[in-house]
Structure formats: C-alpha cells, structure tokens
Design brief:
The structure holds 2 protein chains of 2 kinds.
Chain A: H1 28-42, H2 48-56, H3 60-65, H4 68-82, H5 88-93, E1 136-139, E2 158-168, H6 171-174, E3 183-191, H7 192-196, E4 204-211, E5 215-217
Helix pairs in contact in A: 1-4, 2-4
Chain B: H1 2-9, H2 12-30, H3 36-48, H4 52-64, H5 66-74, H6 76-81, E1 93-97, E2 102-107, H7 116-119, H8 124-127, H9 129-134, H10 139-145, E3 155-160, E4 166-170, H11 182-186, H12 191-195
Helix pairs in contact in B: 4-5
Classes of the chains: A alpha+beta, B mainly alpha.
Chain lengths: 218, 207
C-alpha cells in the first residue's frame, strides 16, 4: 500500500540525530514488546510480513507520532484480534475470558535460544531465475493496496541486476494469507539520477532487493 | 511498582503504553500462548550479549585474516555462523566492502530492517523518519549529520534492505595499524562504521 511507512525520498523530516551511549531499551516495556513479538512469531501466530503489514495499516498520523516499539505493540494488538487469538474486550480488560487457540509451539525459558536464530526465507524455486547479474531491468509501476516491498521511489525505474539471492517467500503474498508463493530475489542497482532526476548527486547509487514479479526486462 | 515506574517514565502518556503492554502480555499469557520467563531471557540476552561487539569481531577478523575476509565477502552467513554468537545469523547476511572508490551505507526505508545478529538492536536514529527518508536521496547530507565528509569522487552506494537480506558494511582498515592483533583492531570498530554512517576510529583515538 502507498502508506506513510514508505518514506524513501520524502523531505521535511529534518536531521538525523544520533543519541550518544544509547541503551538497548529506553524503558522496560520496550523489551517486553520486543520479546512478546518474538514469542508470538515462534508460536506461529503470524509471520513477519503480517506484522509489517499491520504497522503499515496504522493511520498515518498514528504511525508518525508513536515510537517504534509502540508501533510494534499496536500491530500486535491488531494481529491478535484479527487472528482471533484474543478479542478487543479481553485486551481492554487486561485478562483472558476464555481459553486460547492451539498454536504450533511455545517459547519457554529453556528453548528461548531457538528464537534467537533468524529463520530462513529460502523456498523451493518454482521456475528458473528469469534474470542474471548484469541484466537491465525496469521495475514495474505497481500500487497494490496491500503489503508490498517495492518502495515508491523505485517504481518504473531502470536498473541493473547485481546479485541473485536465491528464491524466497514472497512478502506480497504471505501478508495477505496467500502462502509463500516463492519468488527469485535480486539486488537491483539504480543510478541516483534515474531515481531523483538530472540534478541528483552523480556519485550516488542506490539498490533495492526486488522480487522477480517487481521486474520486467529492459 | 506502578507508581514507581510512572515516576521513572515521566508522564501519563508512557504509563498508558505500559498499561497496554501489560494487558497484552497478561492476556497472551493467560491464553497459554507465551511464557513470561522466556520473555525475560530474550530481554536479558539483548541487554547483555547481543550487540555491535559481535559485528566488530567479524570486521576485525576480516581485517587481520585475508582468507576469512574472502570467505566473508563470498558468503557472510556461512563465514559468521562459526563465530559462536548467542544470536545466530540466519541465511541471508551479505557483507559489503568499503574501498577508496566506494563507500557503502545501509538503510531500510520501508520499516527498519537491520542485521540484529551482528549489530544488536538498531539505534533509534536508524528507525527514525529522518534517516529512512533521506538515506536514499541525500546520503551525503546524512553523512554530514554524523560528521562524516567523504571525497567528492567517492561513490556512495546505498543498500535499501527491502527484503530479508541483511547487509553488514566492512569498513576500510585504518592506517597505521600494521601488525595489530585482532583483539586490538576490535577496539577501532564502531557500530556506525558497520552501518556506513561512520568511519572506524583512528589508532590515536583509543591510545
């Protein structure tokens, strides 16, 4: 969706302000949110792109004014409710009123290290890769109302395939419950001027990682 | 306890967040989905074990061991997997090398994807709108925010992490470090130099 989360190239947000000696968490609840998300993912409650999609669907004014971990928390509430894992009344009351649904597995203090290894997104290829390094490609000009990982600033642009990362689960499909629909993944490199026009800094190049359905030969 | 936290967190807005988080955790626990003890362990691991020191070891080893450097650039997931980090790297890590010609910088414009396994939790600025919006359009301006100025001729290469691939920048080894051990080199490696918004420390900065 063409949401506020798709920020690449927007103006007006000001300078980047690094914080010296930043702690891992700025409040105890931030750690709880991170760990809750990790435990629910491990349990198979939802996949990472469902979590991203839930954040993207927050109203733009909310997305911009709450903190990173607040966004996670709001997205979790949404996923919990939409997947029938608890209802809004229970979250408001702060207590469960009935038993939970069966989930795949449960993270415990004994097996928590299993959740510290990143899952693999490789999937069995359904067809040979259409592109190889060096191929010229144009990104498609698509505007799906649902989750996609093709940023707006890189749509309809000419680039060159640089790396082939194998075949991966396709976020656009996963996020709308249509399964992994495995797709080849490429790093596609663009000249800064192709993205930002003739006045752009000629020494800048930008790449995205693009799934094959985002690309056509050029 | 609630009142005490309230004081620590300055204000009612945050205490409302705390209440929501507590409600969510309580409901998910009572439903049987999660075990709060597992949450404690995850938090503790991120607070004490996973951080940029993991990536710094990778960089220092690449600086001091040409075979490891080549292995890292060929397949970073495989090269890093053997290093025994608590947060183990998955399948999708890519190391990108800075040279005199090319300076690499990593961003995630769509959310805040970051190589947690080697760098720990992302800093707030990495997740912020200013960085996510400007890194792909005005990377030199972003570098200036960090006090970094590169020669005009240096190519700036920005990697937008739009899929599950994660990028680790391998910075250039600082000059005047000939003969340094891996342990000593580690001290020169900063988090930001592995994201590409900074440069490694100079030897005199750690003297």
């Amino acid at each position: 969706m063409d949401g506020i989360h798709d920020m690449g190239g927007m103006d007006g947000f000001g300078k980047v302000v690094p914080e010296p000696n930043e702690p891992p968490f700025h409040a105890a609840w931030e750690g709880r949110v991170l760990a809750l998300q990790r435990a629910m993912s491990y349990a198979g409650a939802w996949q990472i792109d469902m979590s991203r999609a839930a954040q993207e669907r927050l109203p733009p004014q909310v997305y911009l004014t709450v903190s990173y971990y607040q966004r996670w928390e709001l997205a979790m509430e949404r996923n919990v409710i939409e997947r029938g894992l608890a209802d809004a009344g229970e979250l408001a009351a702060g207590h469960a009123q009935g038993a939970g649904k069966p989930l795949k597995r449960k993270l415990t203090a004994d097996n928590f290290l299993d959740s510290m290894t990143r899952g693999s997104f490789y999937r069995q290829a359904q067809a040979p890769a259409r592109f190889k390094p060096g191929d010229r490609v144009r990104t498609r000009n698509i505007h799906p109302p649902t989750h996609t990982r093709l940023p707006r600033y890189a749509r309809g642009r000419l680039g060159v395939v640089e790396l082939v990362h194998g075949c991966h689960a396709f976020p656009d499909s996963v996020a709308i419950e249509k399964g992994d629909d495995p797709q080849w993944l490429y790093t596609v490199l663009f000249e800064g001027r192709e993205l930002w026009g003739p006045d752009a800094d000629p020494s800048v190049k930008v790449s995205i990682d693009a799934f094959e359905p985002y690309l056509e030969p050029a | 306890m609630a009142a005490q936290e309230h004081q620590h967190e300055h204000g009612s807005e945050l205490s409302e967040v705390q209440l929501r988080v507590r409600a969510l955790e309580t409901v998910l626990t009572e439903k049987g989905y999660i075990d709060p003890a597992a949450l404690d362990r995850i938090i503790e691991t991120y607070e004490t074990k996973v951080g940029p020191h993991n990536g710094a070891r990778v960089v220092a080893r690449a600086w001091s061991n040409p075979a490891f450097k080549q292995a890292l650039l060929d397949d970073a997931s495989k090269a890093v997997r053997g290093m025994g980090h608590e947060s183990r790297v998955g399948d999708h890590l890519v190391a990108v090398e800075n040279t005199l010609q090319v300076h690499n910088m990593v961003v995630c414009t769509l959310c805040s994807c970051y190589p947690w396994e080697v760098l720990g939790l992302p800093p707030v600025w990495y997740k912020s709108a200013p960085y996510r919006s400007r890194a792909v359009k005005d990377p030199r301006g972003v570098l200036a925010d960090f006090g970094v100025k590169l020669p005009k001729e240096t190519q700036i290469r920005v990697w937008d992490s739009t899929a599950e691939t994660r990028f680790l920048v391998l910075p250039m080894r600082p000059q005047d470090t000939e003969g340094w051990s891996e342990e000593r080199l580690v001290q020169l490696v900063t988090r930001d130099c592995m994201i590409g918004t900074g440069l490694p420390k100079k030897p005199e900065e750690i003297a």
